Amino acid sequence: MSDTQAITHRRVLKIAVPIVLSNATVPLLGAVDTGIVGQMGQAAPIGAVGIGAIILGAFYWVFGFLRMGTTGLAAQALGRGDGDEVAALLTRVLLIGGGAGLALIVLQGVLFRLGFWLSPASAEVEELALGYMGIRIWSAPAAIALYGVIGWLIAAERTGAVLVLQVGLNLVNMALSFWLGLGLGWGITGVAVATVIAEWGGLLLGVWLCREAFRNPRWRDMGRILDRGKLVKMWRVNSDILIRSLALQAIFLSFLLYAADFGDVTLASTQVLLQFLHIVGHALDGFAFAAEAMVGQAAGAGAVMRLRKAARLSSLWGLGLVLVLSGVFAIAGPAVIDLMATDPAVRADARIYLPWLVAVPVVGLGSWMLDGIFIGATRTADMRNMMLVSAAIYFVAVFTLTPVLGMHGLWLSVHISFVARAVTLGLRYRALERSVQADHAAA
User: Residue 436 pLDDT > 90, yes or no?
Assistant: First the structure.
């Protein structure tokens, strides 16, 4: 086995660490944009940027499957040694991402009205938000195509390039936001224009980072790029991931809606505590992405023992990380709560439910890592089905436990959903290995 094939601790960390560092930069951009608009001395612009970013983010999120699906498919092509498909796949996802972005531009009027119907605001905020979104929508093709580029780079285990791309995009965005928003006094318009320039620049940088794919002439072979069988497989994989993601989103959206029934204080404390959950997700992404890349390459090669070792080592490092996170949450959690909330009632309420967040990293580990393993193997139908089962179990738990235990019952239901995802996917793992063997034998 070559060094590039061997599954080692060093290889896991080489993939995971840049993703963890990259994800750490994600919250900075929103904070900077909010701070810049906040210098205008009015509340409406802050609300407009916030709600505009949320609405656009929701529409872009629908196409997030392009990142996961691309990673699994590209990693398997690499594992098979199919360089032609690796090159053609990059062009395919760029075309799909660009086409999806153009569709959003064409449909922007309808989509923005839908966004405000789901998340209404004052007339002044909506007017400002419309101006902000009307500018930012012009980078939708770049923003969505970047999902595919990042997925392709992760599959190639080039997460250092992902780090460069993410940090570069965010730094350019922040610098331009300061210059256009504050320096030239463009305010919201400047912040929106800065994002458009940064996202198109990010796509150009991403394509340049993938430049080795364009040395293979198959990158422009439209017969292969638009091959019906390849497109059908992409559709199957990506539609499964989309349904799975919608079911997961339904859990967390309903969680917030149920929390609102317990009053404004509890809703506010829940929002604070959910930031701990975001930290866990961003941190574990590094090791889940490592599993995606290594499992995908092993699946493409039909190397079941290598696949098993990739799953085991990436999960082992994930376990080490979640134990650290749980310890940090237990020790520093109260101080972090005080930093994020000044209202004494919100602080006190958040402390009551903090133990649930201390437990989240360990309880949620299995679901995060198994997602990465199944994405790498493109066993997305199992992901879809088990997520639907887990969502059903969650809602049964909510209706059963919340009337008895109150907000504690709601938090317990979320933990039950994590366990359900891990158990149901875990029960399908042996079938995953058998299918990899069968696919390789049939090839």
Answer: yes
